[in-house]
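Example record

The entry below shows one chain as it appears in the dataset: sequence first, then C-alpha cells.
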Amino acid sequence: MKKVAIIGGGIAGLATAYYLHTRGGGAVNYTLIESAPYFGGKIVSAREQGFVVEGGPDSFLTTKPAALELCRALGLGDELIGTNDAGRKVFVWSREQLCAMPDGVMLIIPTKITPFLQSSLISWRGKLRMGMDAFIPPRAEDGDESLSHFVRRRLGAEALDKIAEPMIAGIYVADAENLSLKSTFPRFLDMEKKHGGLLRGVLAQKRASNGNRNGNGNGSGKPTTSMFMTLRGGLQQMTDALVARLDQHALLANRRVVAVTHNEGAYDIALSDGAHLNTDEIVFATPAYATANLVAPIAPALADSLRAIRYVSTATVSLGFRRAEMAHPLDGFGFVVPRSEKRKIIACSWSSTKFDHRAPAGHVLVRAFIGGAQAEHLAEQDDGALAEIARAELRAMMGITATPVLTKVYRWIKANPQYDVGHQTRIAEVDRLAQAAGVRLVGGAYHGIGIPDCVESGARVVEKIIGRR
C-alpha cells in the first residue's frame, strides 16, 4: 500500500486528503499534518450571537466548478446560497464620499454606455481617455505585463486609480504595479489580441450573446447559479465536512514538521513532538516559503525558486451593529478604496446585504479589510489596534457612530501569495524542479488563489499519485 503524507491542513491539503480517501480505492495510506490546532487554514467561520462571521474568504467562484462540486459531494447542496444580486452594487470611496460604480462595469470595462456617462466617478476627461481604447492598437509583444501598465496603456490613469486598482488589485491584495495580468486576468489580454481592444471585445461578446440568448441551456436567459456562492452557516461548514469524511486516525493536528529527509526512495518526516513518519510520497500544501525551508536539504534549487514567491499580510475586522443605530442604508455589497485616497482600509464588505443569514433579525454585519501589499504594517498590529482602525475609518467614511455588539478580528500574517509579473514563467520552473525532485505541490501560490483553484490542485495531484495521469 502506498503511503502519502500531506503537510498543511488548509483547503488544498484537506482536498488532497479527501480525494486520496475517496479515489484511492483503498490502496493509499494517507496522513494529513497540520501545525495549527485546527484544520481549514484561512477558512474560518465564527457563529456568535446569531452572526455568521468569515475570518478569511466569504465565498467561492462558481465559474470554476471544483468547490461547488465538492460541496455537493459532501452533502452540503441544501446549504449553498448565492449573493443577493438584487442588491448588487459596489461603491468607490472617491473625493471624500461613496460613489456608486456605474452599472454594467465588468471589472474594468464599461458594458453599458448611459450609466457610465452619467456616473460622477470618472471625470469627462477620464471617460474620453477610456473611450480611446477603441482606437489604440494592440500591443505587439506577447509577454506578461502588470495590471497598471495594461490599464494605463488601454484606458488611462484615472481608470486605473478609480476602478482597476481597487477592484482587481484588491482581489489579490496586490500592488497593481507588480500584479501579473497574464496570471490573474488573461481574459483582458485575450480580448486585446483577438478583438484589438477591450471595448471591441465587449461589443463582440454582446453580439455573440444576442445570437444565443439562451446559451446557458436552461431556456430562461438567466444563470442557474450565482457567480459567487457560500454556505448558510459559513464556509467552515465545507472544511468541517471534509475533516469528518477523513480517516480520523490519519489527522495529525497541532504538530509541526521540523525536517524532511530522503533516502532510498522513501521520505522520513520529523515532527515537533519527536515522532517520525516514513512515507513514499509527500504533498506540500504549505505556503511556498514554508515549503522552501522543508525541501531545501533535498531540493535546494526548488527551495530557491519557491522563496521567490512573495507573500503579504492582511487582516479583517467584522463589526455587528443594531440596525436601528445605523443611519447608512447598506444598499449594496460594499465599497473599495483607491490607494490615492490614503485611507487605512482597502475595502469594506456589507456582509449582511451581500448574503442572507449573516446577522440576526434587527442587526447588520460589515467587514473591513486592512493591509495588503501597500500597507502590511497596519495588518500586523494587535486586535485592539485593528478594531480601532476599522471603527475610525467607518465612522469617517460611512458615518457609523454606534457601538458594535460584536467585534471579530482576524490577522493573516504572510498568508497571501503575490502573482507578480512573470508568475507563469516562475511557476513553470517551480513545477519542473518539483517534478525532478519527486515533490508534489498544491495550494494557492501556484495556479490560482481561489478556493476552487486550491480544491482543483488537490484533485490534480491525487490523479498523479494514483497513476491515472
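Notes for this example: Confidence is low (pLDDT under 50) at residues 215-223. The first strand starts at residue 2 and ends at 7.
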